[in-house]
Write a structure and sequence with these properties.
Number of helices: 4
Shape: globular
Distance between the termini: 39 Å
Number of strands: 0
Oligomer: single chain
Radius of gyration: 13 Å
Helix content: 40-55%
Number of domains: 1
């Protein structure tokens, strides 16, 4: 139930009809909170492609803490130049 609600919220927030800007970090945090790591990584990839400022905080933002030990996260952090 929680995951479905989170996905619905992200879809609604990401829709072209939504007049408000929603940072990639907020959408990612929402998906992580619901337990959908794959969708969270997809949001981070979109953030990287769109040069989102949230990418600068992958190593610092506590909302992304559970992603830091993931090999895919290390690859992303290297692409953003946050990892050695």
């Amino acid at each position: 139930m929680r995951l479905a609600e989170a996905r619905r919220l992200v879809q609604r927030m990401d829709a072209a009809a939504d007049p408000f800007f929603h940072p990639v970090g907020d959408l990612t945090a929402l998906l992580l909170g619901a337990g959908d790591r794959d969708a969270a990584f997809a949001q981070i990839e979109l953030g990287f492609a769109g040069r989102s400022y949230d990418m600068l905080y992958l190593d610092r933002d506590p909302r992304f803490a559970e992603l830091r030990n993931n090999p895919a996260s290390l690859f992303l952090r290297k692409r953003v130049s946050l990892a050695n």
